[in-house]
């Protein structure tokens, strides 16, 4: 199957305000390589062959205003949703809802970073 996306560039009001959150949360999601780019928090996912698969970058935009968009990440199991929810909460996720079943076969947790950007981690069984 072809790749569906290459990367995410996310904006936040204050980079230092969210650094601890993303420095912990992104590696927990599998974006394990810290790219160390000035002015960015960027973590890359590296394939088994050692090549860059995709990346998640965060940069500062002081005028950033969060909206209703949400970035959802897939988890392989309900237990993985629980684990990632615990990681997010441990590093300051806000407005956490769940984890739990939204509908039968759809287990998820919803939360925001300190800039109000919305996230979801979900596992579907149907």
UniProtKB/TrEMBL annotation:
What the entry lists under SUPFAM superfamilies is as follows:
Glyoxalase/Bleomycin resistance protein/Dihydroxybiphenyl dioxygenase
Molecular-function GO term, any one: lyase activity
Recorded hits in PROSITE patterns, A to Z, give:
VOC
Tell me the ranges covered by the VOC domain, including all copies. Answer: 4-124
- Keywords, ordered alphabetically: Lyase
Q: What is this protein called?
A: Putative lactoylglutathione lyase
| Organism in which the protein naturally occurs | Roseimicrobium gellanilyticum
